[in-house]
Write a structure and sequence with these properties.
Elements lengths: L3 E6 L9 H9 L2 H12 L5 H10 L6 H9 L7 H10 L2 E10 H11 L3 E10 L2 E8 L6 H13 L6 E5 L5 H4 L4 E5 L3 H4 L4 E3 L12
Parallel strand pairs: 1-2, 1-5, 2-3, 5-6, 6-7
Antiparallel strand pairs: 3-4
Helix pairs in contact: 1-2, 2-3, 4-6
């Protein structure tokens, strides 16, 4: 069976919501963070700048609490079934997230993903410092990582499927022939080959 690659965004694609909004609500900075998130996902703010502003607002939050919240994030309907079926069809299935390992590592185990690439929240003495680093910090990070994975796995763009919802997914759309905008912002729909507006990931299987 020919190996294929499916790459999912995490926030609002595999997971029903934005991780940082769940954290911000718990920490009492929800309104400030939401405003920045909306601008970033609509492509009005540079992705790295938006990450910096938002994570800075979480400074002082206890890592233990962050992990508790991230362990209990709600998945989008059909997430696990869709990933299982894609793997049965010969796909390697990975997640790219501008979010955080605290959320994507548990999700990898629960959903059966082959891999996850995301960012790391820096902490000191058990609390967030407001700093971060990682693999998905910039607007073109997903595209660059996709090219790297395609090279390692020897998979070309015609055997690559990407699924996302926001502006920071545009960079990976450049390197895949099958581009799925899932309950997405207009900026992504305009660059998609498949548009799904029903919030059920099993819809994807009809097109693959």
């Amino acid at each position: 069976m020919e190996i294929k690659l499916a790459v999912f965004d995490f926030d609002s694609t595999l997971m029903n919501g934005e991780t940082i909004n769940f954290l911000a609500k718990d920490y009492g900075v929800e309104d400030e963070v939401k405003k920045i998130t909306e601008k970033a996902m609509a492509g009005e703010l540079d992705f790295f700048e938006s990450l910096t502003y938002r994570i800075g607002l979480l400074k002082g939050m206890k890592v233990k609490r962050v992990d508790e919240i991230c362990q209990n994030l709600p998945f989008v309907i059909g997430a696990k079934e869709t990933i299982t079926e894609l793997k049965n069809r010969g796909y390697k299935v990975v997640c790219f997230s501008g979010g955080y390992k605290n959320a994507t590592v548990p999700a990898k185990e629960k959903l059966g993903l082959d891999g996850e690439f995301s960012n790391i929240l820096h902490s000191k003495n058990g609390a967030l410092t407001g700093l971060f680093g990682g693999e998905m910090c910039f607007s073109d990070s997903k595209g660059q990582m996709l090219k790297t994975l395609q090279s390692i796995l020897k998979i070309d763009r015609k055997n690559t499927v990407v699924i996302g919802d926001g502006a920071n997914d545009l960079s990976m759309f450049q390197y895949a022939d099958t581009r799925i905008a899932f309950c997405a912002k207009e900026v992504l729909k305009n660059n998609a080959t498949i548009i799904i507006d029903k919030k059920d990931l099993r819809e994807i299987l009809k097109y693959l």
